[in-house]
């Protein structure tokens, strides 16, 4: 789990005029408001760094508010480590933050388990892939492909090329896989066409190694430095207005 703690010391002194008992409450409010500014800055940075990030990705930065009354309050800015039924965002963002190999997708694990996808390789969309507005293969097509892969394991296989037709609305489609070493077609996943031909949906490429490009820590700290003074001033103004009533 990724997180950055925002230090309270930069605002505590300015708030002492309100009394020692009030300072922890006001400090917690300042830190929490500054943390939300940092969360918004992370979402903005994602739109700059990534190609068409999904709303799910843009909502992944989260804030744990500072506890009011805590003698040492701290607001935490992090990336969600839960997915609400999907893949936790930190899993697919980690290699962009720290570098390293792209994390394996569930579909790739399934293909690897059947022996279709070799170790050290990932799937890469090709001409026959149906992509959504965010550049990801559609769930309907992936389900059809994985259904065909399940069929391979049900009956066993020994050939390098195999596949079957599906059911439902996409029953007219048929997919097959070519394993490395098969003569003729390059390794990958193919869809058969109505004219008797084929279109590559996925090619198999070496697992990419990423350099860090999403400066999570730097964005958070820069946002806090930029906004904490303004946030503290606003909290103090509000406190003074409340005390004058």
Share of residues in helices:
40-55%
Number of helices: 7
Major sheet details: 5 strands, antiparallel
**Uncertain parts:** 151-166
Helical/strand content category: alpha+beta
Q: Strand order of the main beta sheet, please? A: 5-9-8-7-6
Spell out the helices and strands N to C: EHHHEEHEHEHEEEEEH
> Beta-sheet strand percentage?
15-25%
Radius of gyration: 26 Å
Polypeptide structure, described:
42% of the residues lie in helices and 19% in strands. It has 245 residues and is an alpha+beta fold. The strands form three sheets. Strands 5-9-8-7-6 form a five-stranded antiparallel β-sheet, covered by helices on one side. Strands 1-3-2 form a three-stranded antiparallel β-sheet, with helices on one face. A two-stranded antiparallel ribbon has the order 4-10.
